[in-house]
Amino acid sequence: MAYLTTGHPHSPATFSRLILAIFLLLYTFPQPSSPSAENSIHDLLRSRGLPGGLLPKGVQSYSFSDDDGRLEVKLEGPCLTRFENRVYFESVVKANLTYGSLTGVVGLSQEELFLWLPVKDIIVDDPNSGLILFDIGVAHKQMSLSLFEYPPDCKSLQDHQGLRKNHVRKEKGFEALR
Questions:
Q1: Phi and psi angles of residue 88, each rounded to the nearest 5 degrees, phi first
Q2: pLDDT at residue 176, as a whole number
Q3: Residue 48: CA atoms inside 13 Å, Cβ hemisphere, count?
Q4: What's the burial of 56, exposed, middle or buried (CB within 10 Å: 0-12/13-18/19+)?
Q5: Which pLDDT belongs to residue 151?
Q6: What is the pLDDT of residues 5-16, one digit of tens each?
Q7: Local structure of residue 32 (DSSP, 8 states)
Q8: Which CATH architecture has domain 41-164?
Q9: Torsion of CA 29, 32, 35, 36, to 10 degrees
Q10: For residue 73, which of 110, 118, 46, 105 has the smallest C-alpha distance?
């Protein structure tokens, strides 16, 4: 027992104190913030009156400024998903986030009548209406909020390009057999 209290630098008591000091230091100082399960982009959207499923799964990181509402979301890469129509997300999506709206959206397009149109604003005026408004420049489109309840899976653009090549082969008929 006298060995534990001697203060010798290699004693078990000194080692225990060192571990305790490291543990206290790690949990006393604030850790750098990063999105986690408790603090995800989807939770941030919900806390601002928007559905959490506006952005897909696979968000690598995001930054948000409470001061001016600037939001920048980084995805694993460009990808496609489907709500009511096909939607294309670039690798980085930017917008101004205020309660109930994403305005000045950059990096998000929606397919309408075979055209890809940039989404400019996304607005939930009245959550009780069950509707969400998408401003696609030339028109406004209302959709059901329920479509955006859960974050969708988003297929990488490479996966869709492979499907497109196979689709073109099928359309060429006999030429594809050569």
A1: -115, 125
A2: 40
A3: 23
A4: buried
A5: 94
A6: 445 555 566 555
A7: P
A8: Roll (2.30)
A9: -30
A10: 105
Q: Where in the chain is the domain with CATH 2.30.240.10?
A: 41-164
Q: Cα(62)–Cα(50) distance, rounded to whole angstroms? A: 16
- State both tokens at 94: 């930017």
In the structure encoding, which two tokens stand for residue 17, read together?
């104190």
Residue position matching structure tokens 């101004």: 96
Answer whether 53's CB lies under 8 Å from 150's CB.
Answer: yes
Q: What is the tally of helices (H) and strands (E) in the chain?
A: 3, 10
| First-to-last C-alpha distance (Å) of the chain | 87
Polymer length of the chain: 178
Instruction: Please check whether residue 92 is in contact with residue 78, taking contact to mean a CB–CB distance below 8 angstroms.
Output: no
DSSP assignment letter at 175: G
Give me the amino acid identity at 146.
Answer: S
Give the number of other CB atoms < 10 A from CB of residue 91.
14
Buried b (16+ CB within 10 A) or exposed e, 103-117: eebebbbbeeeeeeb
Q: For residue range 156-177, list pLDDT tens digits in order.
A: 876 555 444 343 333 444 444 3
- Measured in whole angstroms, the distance separating CA 42 from the mean position of its chain's CA atoms is 7
Global pTM? 0.68
